[in-house]
Amino acid sequence: MATQHSRSAARLMMAPAVVLLLGWMLVPLTMTLWFSFKKYLPLRGGDLGWVGFDNYVRFVTSSSFWPSVWTTLTIVGGVLIITIVLGVLLAILLNQPMWGQGIVRILVIAPFFVMPTVSALVWKNMFMDPVNGLFAHLWKFFGAEPMVWLTEASLESIILIVSWQWLPFATLILLTAIQSLDGEQLEASEMDGATPLARFGYIVLPHLGRAITIVLLIQTIFLLSIFAEIFVTTQGAFGTKTLTYLIFQRVLESQNIGLGSAGGVYAIILANIVAIFLMRIVGKNLDA
């Protein structure tokens, strides 16, 4: 049992890391808030004074603001659905005995370690190119006209690219959870005559509840700031402009750090709203 002295020593040793982490978070956040109330043009005069909430009003009244929020939530929702559904199926498949199981698992997990820019370039040039892409050749093989993916199905293409990159993460977490499932429980249900679908619905899926919650929370945090895949493929055109890309675009166009900082604050607010929603609706599984 820990004594008061050992607890104090533990807090003292943890203090430098806590202070560093708080500084890492609070300093950029404070600077973002500070600049959001100023008109700061680094290439056109520098600090031009305090403007109050003018940057916030300009950003939220932009015709691109609400469409970008909707696009962001659509991408996040689409990627979460694909990665969780396919992640569960892949985890169950990879948990079955097979030849070369270790190699197969490494190959399935490998895309997660590919940089987003490289992943987007591979999909753009090798798969979705309307002339030389793999999908174009498949379309021609079946006698169909090749599809210009990044123009005709731009949002779906972004969701597909990002899902490919995040599917290994979801599969790894869910596979770990499945491996912790008691095999005797499955065997007993099979002996009682339960069908594979019933075993999945009543035993496997409830057991994966906590792992699915973790996947939802972690992926949502990162997906809300998706940028590289859009920059490399569509550059925000054809309805793929997310809130993060809109912030980048506004700063690039106006060279106004204050306007971009106000957009950053809106992004923080959106992330917190989504996080609170997930913690209250989905995060209850963590207490189960």
What does this structure look like?
The protein has 288 residues and is mainly α. It has a domain at 65-240: MetI-like (MetI-like fold). It has helices spanning 4-36, 54-60, 65-94, 101-109, 116-127, 134-141, 149-152, 154-179, 183-191, 196-207, 209-223, 228-233, 243-254, 257-281, and strands at 38-41, 46-50. Strands 1-2 form a two-stranded antiparallel sheet. Helix 3 runs parallel beside helix 8 (154-179), helix 3 (65-94) crosses helix 13 and helix 8 packs antiparallel against helix 11 (209-223). The radius of gyration is 24 Å and the shape is globular. The mean pLDDT is 81.
Describe the secondary structure blueprint for this structure.
Blueprint: H1 4-36, E1 38-41, E2 46-50, H2 54-60, H3 65-94, H4 101-109, H5 116-127, H6 134-141, H7 149-152, H8 154-179, H9 183-191, H10 196-207, H11 209-223, H12 228-233, H13 243-254, H14 257-281
Antiparallel strand pairs: 1-2
Helix pairs in contact: 1-14, 2-14, 3-8, 3-11, 3-13, 8-11, 11-14, 13-14
Largest β-sheet summary = 2 strands, antiparallel
Strand arrangement, largest sheet? Answer: 1-2
H/E topology pattern: HEEHHHHHHHHHHHHH
CATH topology of the domain at 65-240: MetI-like fold
Low-confidence stretches: none
User: What do we call the CATH homologous superfamily of the domain at 65-240?
Assistant: MetI-like
Query: Kindly, what is the distance between the CA atoms of the first and last residues, rounded to a whole number of angstroms?
Result: 27 Å
Shape: globular
Structural class: mainly alpha
Mean pLDDT: 81
Please identify, by name, the CATH architecture of the domain at 65-240: Orthogonal Bundle
